[in-house]
Amino acid sequence: MNRYIELWIESLPQLLEAMVKVTLPLTLIAFVLSLLIGILATVMRTRSNVNPLNWISRFYVWVFRGTPLLVQLFLIFYGLPRLGITLDTWTAAIITLSLNTGAYVAETFRASVASIPRGQFEAARTLNFTKMQTLTKVVIPQAVRIALPPLGNDLIDLVKGTALVSTISLVDLFQSGRQVAARTYEPLAMYLEVAFLYLIIVTILSWGQRYLEKRSSRYVRSANA
Amino acid sequence: MLKLEDLTKSFEATTVLDNISLDLESGETTVILGPSGSGKSTLLRCLNLLETPQSGTLFIEGDLVEFGGKLTDEQVRTIRKHSAMVFQSFNLFPHYTALQNVALAPVLNGKMNKKDANKLASDLLDKVGLGAKKDSYPDNLSGGQQQRVAIARALAVSPDYLLFDEPTSALDPELEAEVIGVLIDLAREKRSLVVVTHNMAFAQKVADRIVFLEGGHVLYNGRPEGFFSSTNERIRRFLNIFETV
Fold first, then answer.
1. Predicted complex: ipTM over 0.85
2. Among A120, A165, B145, B203, which residue has the fewest nearby CB atoms (within 10 Å)?
3. Are A126 and B139 inside 8 Å of each other by CB?
4. Mean pLDDT of B80-85
5. C-alpha B237: how far from its chain's center?
6. What are the residue boundaries of the structural domains of chain A, listed by start?
7. Positive or negative CA dihedral for B69, B73, B79, B85?
8. What angle in degrees, to the nearest 10, is found between the helix axes of B98-108 and B114-127?
9. Which chain B residue is nearest to residue A120, measuring alpha carbons?
10. Assigned architecture for domain A2-218
């Protein structure tokens, strides 16, 4: 046991560095981009009368939800060079993670907007709100509250999904732990430490999610009970 | 002045309103009665263009729209400006307080700044007896209170016509009474009200005009006395239901 504790303390700086330099920024950048992609895909799907835009959005969600993240990563990093598109590891990782998470976010947003009662739209119409006013004052504030829990899930999946970038030779938290494990022949100790660090990230994110949920649900009685 | 000519509305193969013509005077309370499925809610919703009729003409306070083609946003907004709707299910915005619900439309419609709108909203909530509930969210209000906020919200856009779509059907009798009380106040002020309801006492005591619909046709249009003493077989059958309950 003492040996494990020594190992954990000794390896912690290296793992934390990989976490702060790769896993966290990758998560953050990909999540912000996936939100933008999700908004775009939702707008194309729900507000567009132009069928091609609607089709593109549905096709995108279909493909990126329907195939493994690892396969997408390999296609973009190893496959695209065959078409003359060569991306560096960071770019490939960010593009893949954002597109993958974006597909889930798009579904989250679509479901949230769809769950707003018809009467809300009718009330806005009879009060002569413009479409933009209805969206910003009525739909989005309510949709955000509904979207928060599933969005939290999307973010947590993304954190864990970043571990796959180790396969295209990015040294993230997982890859860093792997290197130490290989050097010390202590896979149990190292992967326990890696798992624990992911758990900490996810726990902090869950706290943040719960805080936002509480804040955005102030107007709902049952949420305060 | 609100005038309908040859209004026809159908949903796919079903004709819900069949060539309806109607004149409603300003300052009157019109109660629309009829069995369920007779088209009374649809008629009300056509006045506010929540439903678009297939043909006919709607004339409301100097603005006219002819149905048939696609209406422009501008046309719809112009017609809609003249009326405001109160729904059976209230449809308050749950993420805004009572005051914010009422003050929102005047600000978004560009009629008032926020300060004036809040003042107006506050006055209107006092008027419907909810001055003390200004900062409550709809979820913390009873059904009757929510509906009164909804009435204040409709009043805030200063509509020529207030449209009520079964405003008390979701409420139990005690709460119904408090909402009916507000409607009676509005009728006394000579506001123009168009009310779809099953509340016969209200129809009998408050209405200036009864419109009875059956199968998308107007079967009666006139004073309440004439309606409640009508010898028309269909109307008698309708009234008997309420007398036996």
1. yes
2. A120
3. no
4. 95
5. 25
6. 2-218
7. positive
8. 130
9. B91
10. Orthogonal Bundle (1.10)
